């Protein structure tokens, strides 16, 4: 990978637009749509489509350069969804097959042209893929569009090709959730979710960095992939207090704003959590993914470090864990009142991924032409924002007893396995058996 230092303030100024967080559809259907394959909160921007303009929320899609707009037929949703027959300037073109990035699915689409606008930026003849649906919620639910911000497209030119500079700045605030809510579900049990400050939680800057967020940043080149992932060099992963850092199988990690937490191979998570006093490992059911979750004391000061492109980026404990509300023991059972690590197990064969838990600690500039990503560590501007819910971190059914009582016991078990040596770090044998290639939930 190529490492260089750039000055964000030197990027030509462009337009800045507020972004919000919106909850994706929640589904465990194996044949479910794209919405079911991203974790629950995702950055969105307000987009105006057609003439007269219809305001919709468009998710930010960094995997594909194709902008998608869904033609929702259901009249009940006309107030906040795009309906093609209401635009006087829509022009349809040829029908195509669109393959969803990272998913073994294709959608029928039409190459259409119409006006797209954000506050301060507009194009009277933008190309996008028009998806038709006959049900209440389509493939992009609950949105009507996704803004294609990937470096690779299938059928149309990405919107960034019309910008003065093919760059986008992404800023997510480190502000706190406003509180917790608990809702009794009809089927029984309880759904626990925070009420995050979802409006104006950050901004995107088109063709520039955001004014006032300038400074030195490290630019890391991207290894391009056929499915559009932004793979960057990751030389190490390390928890504070550990003498040795861990390494990932391919020394790469995917940067993915459409996901909330941090996704790592199971053995890496286990080794990171080993030695944290009071940490517990649990079996969980299939809400986001089957596997295990870790809980730990909320007063932990453990810092998580990623070596990206030759520079270390440090996450404080509050960046990578979320409090479990003690009042809702129905769900969290014996570990209520603790915090859950926002560290999720990668599915077999998947790349490790850095989601919003990491991205809210940096200001990032995405260069689509190179492609590359520049990161500048942000100073704290208030408490952190957890962009999700407890059920995302630990689904409704925990095992009755933890798999390991403490992280220290896990460390002791690994010492026994290695004849008294230090806990196992990534070895070539583990790499060969624990992680293969690329799949998304």
UniProtKB/TrEMBL annotation:
Family according to the record: Belongs to the peptidase A1 family.
InterPro entries named among the record's database cross-references: Aspartic_peptidase_A1, PEPTIDASE_A1, Peptidase_aspartic_dom_sf
Keyword Hydrolase (UniProt): no
Name this protein carries in UniProt: Aspartic peptidase A1
Any single GO BP term: proteolysis
Residue ranges constituting the Peptidase A1 domain according to the UniProt record: 43-376
A GO molecular-function annotation: aspartic-type endopeptidase activity
Entries under Pfam families matching the protein: Asp
Signal sequence residues: 1-16
The organism of origin for this protein: Trichosporon asahii var. asahii (strain CBS 8904)
Transmembrane stretches, start-end: none
Keyword vocabulary terms for this entry: Signal
């Amino acid at each position: 990978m190529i490492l260089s230092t750039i000055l964000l303030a030197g990027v030509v100024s462009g337009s800045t637009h507020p972004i919000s967080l919106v909850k994706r559809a929640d589904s465990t259907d194996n044949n479910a749509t794209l919405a079911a394959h991203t974790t629950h909160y995702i950055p969105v921007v307000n987009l105006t489509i057609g003439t007269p303009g219809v305001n919709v929320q468009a998710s930010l899609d960094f995997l594909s350069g194709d902008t998608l707009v869904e033609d929702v037929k259901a009249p009940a949703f006309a107030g906040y969804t795009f309906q093609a027959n209401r635009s006087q300037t829509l022009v349809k073109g040829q029908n195509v097959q669109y393959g969803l990035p990272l998913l073994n699915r294709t959608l029928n689409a039409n190459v259409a042209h119409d006006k797209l606008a954000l506050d301060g930026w507009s194009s009277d003849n933008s190309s996008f893929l028009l998806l038709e649906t006959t049900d209440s919620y389509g493939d992009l639910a609950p949105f009507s569009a996704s803004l294609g911000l990937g470096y690779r497209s299938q059928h149309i030119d990405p919107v960034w090709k019309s910008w003065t500079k093919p760059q986008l700045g992404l800023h997510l605030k480190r502000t706190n959730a406003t509180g917790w809510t608990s809702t009794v579900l009809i089927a029984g049990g309880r759904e626990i979710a925070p009420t995050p400050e979802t409006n104006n939680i950050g901004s995107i800057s088109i063709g520039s960095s955001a004014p006032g967020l300038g400074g030195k940043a490290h630019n890391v080149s991207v290894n391009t992939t056929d499915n559009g992932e932004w793979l960057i060099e990751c030389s190490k992963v390390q928890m504070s207090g550990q003498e040795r850092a861990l390494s990932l199988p391919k020394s790469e990690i995917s940067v993915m704003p459409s996901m909330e937490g941090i996704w790592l191979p199971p053995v890496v998570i286990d080794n990171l959590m080993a030695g944290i006093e009071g940490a517990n490992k649990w079996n969980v059911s299939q809400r986001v993914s089957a596997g295990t979750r870790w809980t730990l004391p909320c007063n932990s000061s453990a810092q998580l470090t990623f070596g990206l492109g030759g520079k270390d980026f440090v996450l404080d404990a509050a960046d990578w864990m979320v409090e479990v509300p003690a009042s809702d023991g129905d769900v969290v059972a014996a570990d209520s009142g603790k915090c859950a690590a926002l560290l999720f197990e990668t599915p077999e064969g998947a790349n490790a991924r850095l989601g919003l838990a990491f991205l809210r600690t940096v200001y990032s500039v995405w260069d689509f032409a190179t492609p590359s990503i520049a990161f500048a560590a942000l100073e704290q501007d208030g408490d952190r924002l957890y962009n999700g819910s407890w059920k995302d971190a630990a689904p409704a059914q925990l095992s009755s007893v933890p798999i390991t009582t403490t992280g220290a016991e896990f460390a002791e078990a690994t010492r026994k396995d290695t004849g008294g040596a230090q806990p196992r770090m990534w070895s070539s044998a583990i790499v060969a058996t624990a992680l293969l290639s690329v799949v998304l939930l």
